[in-house]
Structures are given as C-alpha cells and as structure tokens.
Design goal:
This protein has about 120 residues and is of the alpha/beta class. It has four helices and five strands; from the N terminus they run βαβαβαββα. Helix 2 (about 40-45) packs parallel to helix 3. Keywords: Phosphoprotein, Transcription, Transcription regulation.
C-alpha cells in the first residue's frame, strides 16, 4: 500500500502494550506514527499545531477526555482528519459518533486499520 507512506497517524491508547503493537504495525507498514497515552495528551498535540491524516483512538482512558470526546473535538477542529474509534468494552450509539468516524470492536484485524488509512 504505497499510499500509506505519505500519511501521518496518531495512535491514542492507554494500554502500553496495545499501543506499542499498533504503532509498530502501522510504522512497519509505512505510516509515520505518533502516539499518546491519553486523549488529553493527544489533544495537547493538536493544540500545539500537530495535524494528522488519521487518528486511531481507544474509548475508555484516564483523564478529562475520553476517546469519544477527542473524536468530537477532532471532527470540529480538524475536519480533514479521519477518525477510527477502537474499543473492546462498548459500542457507542451511532448518534454518539462524529460524522464520518468509524468504530471497530477489539479485537480487530490490523489489516483493516491500513485499509481505513487509505480510504
């Protein structure tokens, strides 16, 4: 997938091993990847001027913001950013997702994450 070589991704996941595995997979497949352990940390990156082509975020995380809050802020402030919400604990109501966001239930196939990056 040559198109992924031009993409900047952000992985937002509070579980270090899950985050590391996802970052490694995406990096190994050509994406330029940044990471954050909480939605609060991710939002600080955005506020500092970082812009991402795609953000993969868990839902339940410690801090003021959860993944859905982050997704809604991204949708308002960074309209061009694709948003993929990942969770093994809950499936939010469709109305709770920002327009255009994709929800994947854990466990997910890593290959599906690459497909979403280039859609």
């Amino acid at each position: 997938m040559e198109l992924v070589h031009e993409l900047l991704a952000l992985v937002v996941e509070d579980e270090p091993m899950v985050r590391m595995a996802l970052v490694d997979f995406l990096s190994d497949n050509g994406l330029d990847v940044r990471e954050a352990g909480t939605a609060d940390d991710a939002w600080r990156l955005i506020e500092a001027g970082e812009r991402f082509d795609i953000v993969y975020t868990d839902v339940n995380m410690p801090g003021e913001l959860d993944g859905l809050d982050l997704a809604h802020r991204l949708h308002r402030e960074c309209e061009a950013t694709r948003i993929v919400i990942l969770s093994g604990r809950q499936h939010p109501e469709r109305a709770a997702l920002p327009d255009g966001a994709v929800f994947l239930t854990k466990p997910y196939r890593y290959e599906d994450l690459l497909v979403l990056a280039v859609q």
